[in-house]
Amino acid sequence: MESTDPQPPQFLRSLLSRYSDENPKMSRPYVTLTFAQSVDAKIAGKEGKQLILSGKESMVMTHWMRTMHDAILIGIGTASNDNPQLNTRHLPSRPSNPAKNGHDNPYHLPRPIILDSTLRLSPNCRLLDNYKKGLGRRPWVFCSKLGDDEGNREWMERKQLLEEAGASVITTPTASERHDDNLKLSAVLEYLHEHQIRSLMVEGGARVIRSFFAEESMVDTIIVTIAPTFVGDEGVGYNVGLDQVYRRAF
């Protein structure tokens, strides 16, 4: 389905209008956390299998939101399980403007950001393929600083393969010095802000959503689509109650 409306819905423009204002007190981008869930608060199927929870209208809304942010962030789980494109294919056709956008997509595309502590992202993923074809922007892959060791040959080989495929690999601190599987979100956001990313759309998955909710004052806007679907106990949820959402996001 393609939208026929030539611009984003009014409620989105009103909701995100403040993002265009520079806040000198902020050392991170504005963050929009958006995801679709079932009525029993599941966002993925068994073992993280992708679920179709977004209807046609909400999918179009999501694609409009992408055009309204500088970058879009997902975790390696979503990148591996869904192999997303993070593009705007459901929006109305219009002439492309490579000189303005830096790619052949007719709309502004957000910079893909992947949290991948141990560099498991496939060099053949759609995000990198689209970048090489001129249909998307260069993905930035954030990984653990603990792997950045000349003695870690396997890690260095994975890093080289991703860079040869077009990715920009960025090492960042972890939440714990003893583990390399949880990247320090504040460090990631600070890096993005320093590199002119002023608005960030976070699309998940479950672990990323939990991580953002676990941090104080890290989310500015939450947009949730609730599908009239019951998934059951085998589904993957984000395990955050609404009381926590309200307390931490507002």
From TrEMBL:
The record, for Pfam families, names: RibD_C
Highest taxon, organism lineage = Eukaryota
Q: Which GO terms describe its biological process?
A: riboflavin biosynthetic process
Q: Which InterPro entries match?
A: DHFR-like_dom_sf (IPR024072), RibDG_C (IPR002734), Riboflavin_Biosynth_HTPR (IPR050765)
Region called Disordered, residue ranges: 83-106
Q: Which UniProt keywords apply?
A: NADP, Oxidoreductase, Riboflavin biosynthesis
Could you tell me one molecular function GO term of this UniProt entry? 5-amino-6-(5-phosphoribosylamino)uracil reductase activity
Instruction: Give me the stretches of Polar residues compositional bias.
Output: 83-99
Q: Does the keyword rRNA-binding apply?
A: no
Establish whether keyword Oxidoreductase is in the entry: yes
The EC number(s) given in the record are 1.1.1.302
Q: Where is each Bacterial bifunctional deaminase-reductase C-terminal domain found?
A: 29-235
Pathway info = Cofactor biosynthesis; riboflavin biosynthesis
Q: Which reaction does it catalyse?
A: 2,5-diamino-6-(1-D-ribitylamino)pyrimidin-4(3H)-one 5'-phosphate + NAD(+) = 2,5-diamino-6-(1-D-ribosylamino)pyrimidin-4(3H)-one 5'-phosphate + NADH + H(+); 2,5-diamino-6-(1-D-ribitylamino)pyrimidin-4(3H)-one 5'-phosphate + NADP(+) = 2,5-diamino-6-(1-D-ribosylamino)pyrimidin-4(3H)-one 5'-phosphate + NADPH + H(+)
Hey, which family's this protein in? Belongs to the HTP reductase family.
Q: What function is annotated for this protein?
A: Catalyzes an early step in riboflavin biosynthesis, the NADPH-dependent reduction of the ribose side chain of 2,5-diamino-6-ribosylamino-4(3H)-pyrimidinone 5'-phosphate, yielding 2,5-diamino-6-ribitylamino-4(3H)-pyrimidinone 5'-phosphate.
Report what the protein is called.
2,5-diamino-6-ribosylamino-4(3H)-pyrimidinone 5'-phosphate reductase
